[in-house]
């Protein structure tokens, strides 16, 4: 019991270091956002912009309640409420968006291939964690990638039908390979030089 009380005191007396909890609720919906403190060395990331989903409701919701826990000071520069209708038009737009994904996909351990067909320029989004090792080519020509959805591989694709290839290569692998070859070559040259010196010394000794 004494140990549990000491642990509880340690938790309640620990400084928050700018951490706070935001509770957003309406009739029939509630969302919680946690801002971790700067003392969380693994997952700390300050959030200056938030998009909060309050879910679907078939009734009009006139009030949105906000409450904070552990916040010393909160300042809102801009707040916007967006209501998206989930009617026939929304379902049609969703199906149309789903149909713009890559077709004829072929996926291996380090390659993703497929065909992109679109009437306008669009953004390719993937569920692959972003890394500079992923290289994109459109119809065989290299094209830049970018971070989408806060941490995944994406790119801007031109309109029309194109062959898309995403291939992963460990960053620095080619340079490391050439440096290894150079190092081995220099080692062989030095070994050969030492052998030649030893041989010449032995020949002179015999004479």
What does this protein structure show overall?
The protein has 207 residues and is an alpha+beta fold. It contains three helices and eleven strands, in the order αβββαββββββββα. The protein is elongated, with a radius of gyration of 30 Å. The N terminus is likely disordered.
In terms of topology, how is this protein built?
Layout: H1 2-13, E1 20-26, E2 29-35, E3 65-69, H2 88-98, E4 103-107, E5 111-118, E6 122-129, E7 134-138, E8 141-143, E9 146-148, E10 152-157, E11 160-168, H3 173-206
Antiparallel strand pairs: 1-2, 1-3, 4-5, 5-11, 6-10, 7-8, 7-11, 9-10
Strand content: 25-35%
Summarize the biggest pleated sheet. Answer: 5 strands, antiparallel
Q: Which structural class matches the secondary elements?
A: alpha+beta
Count the beta strands: 11
- Helical segment tally? 3
**Main sheet strand line-up:** 4-5-11-7-8
Portion in helices: 25-40%
Average pLDDT, to the nearest integer? 82
Q: Point out poorly predicted stretches.
A: 1-14
Q: What's the SSE pattern?
A: HEEEHEEEEEEEEH
Kindly provide the radius of gyration, computed on alpha-carbon positions and rounded to a whole number of angstroms: 30 Å
Shape type: elongated
Distance between the termini: 92 Å
Question: What's this model, at a glance?
Answer:
This protein is an alpha+beta fold.
Short key terms for the protein model shown above:
disordered N terminus; single chain; 207 residues; five-stranded antiparallel beta sheet; 3 helices; alpha+beta; 11 strands; three-stranded antiparallel beta sheet
């Amino acid at each position: 019991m004494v140990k549990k009380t000491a642990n509880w005191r340690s938790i309640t007396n620990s400084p928050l270091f700018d951490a706070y909890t935001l509770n957003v609720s309406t009739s029939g919906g509630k969302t919680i956002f946690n801002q971790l403190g700067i003392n969380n060395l693994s997952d700390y990331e300050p959030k200056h912009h938030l998009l909060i989903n309050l879910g679907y409701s078939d009734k009009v919701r006139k009030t949105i309640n906000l409450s904070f826990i552990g916040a010393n000071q909160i300042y809102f520069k801009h707040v916007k409420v967006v209501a998206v209708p989930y009617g026939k038009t929304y379902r049609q737009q969703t199906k149309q968006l789903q149909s713009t994904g890559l077709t004829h996909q072929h996926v291996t351990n380090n390659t993703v291939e497929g065909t992109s067909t679109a009437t306008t320029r669009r953004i390719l989004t993937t569920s692959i964690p972003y890394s500079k090792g992923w290289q994109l080519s459109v119809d065989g020509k290299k094209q830049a990638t970018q971070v989408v959805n806060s941490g995944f591989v994406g790119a801007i694709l031109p309109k029309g039908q194109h062959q898309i290839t995403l291939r992963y290569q460990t960053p620095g692998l080619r340079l490391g390979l050439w440096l290894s070859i150079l190092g081995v070559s220099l080692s062989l040259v030095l070994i050969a030089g030492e052998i030649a010196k030893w041989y010449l010394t032995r020949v002179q000794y015999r004479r």
